[in-house]
Write a structure and sequence with these properties.
Blueprint lengths: L1 E7 L7 E3 L2 H15 L5 E7 L5 E7 L7 H23 L6 H4 L3
Antiparallel strand pairs: 1-2, 1-3, 3-4
């Protein structure tokens, strides 16, 4: 199970459990859309089923920046990272015999 947390000054959004990667990405997108504002630094953390934490932040500096577009682009990058982690965590562990043939 994934868990998404988004924090920013003045917000009280707690962690949200998500059944799968798609749900985690959608929750992250929704939460960021809710709290991202000009000059507000927003931190986020996604806890993966593998135990790995993927974390970062986003800050919109200019009031003229399209907030929804910036969040969409940011989440697209995060999704690529989470997808690569998801594939890596599903790889079977290497067999010692394959690494050390006798």
């Amino acid at each position: 199970m994934y868990e998404v947390s988004v924090t920013a000054r003045g917000t009280g959004l707690g962690p949200t459990p998500c059944a799968d990667l798609d749900a985690a990405v959608e929750v992250l997108r929704q939460r960021l859309n809710e709290v991202v504002a000009p000059r507000r630094r927003v931190h986020w953390v996604v806890r993966c089923p593998s135990g790995q934490l993927v974390r970062g932040d986003i800050t919109i500096n200019a009031a003229s920046t399209n907030r929804l577009e910036a969040v969409r682009d940011h989440v697209t990058e995060i999704q690529e990272i989470l997808t690569s982690d998801n594939h890596a965590s599903k790889q079977p562990p290497a067999n010692d015999e394959e690494r050390n043939p006798e």
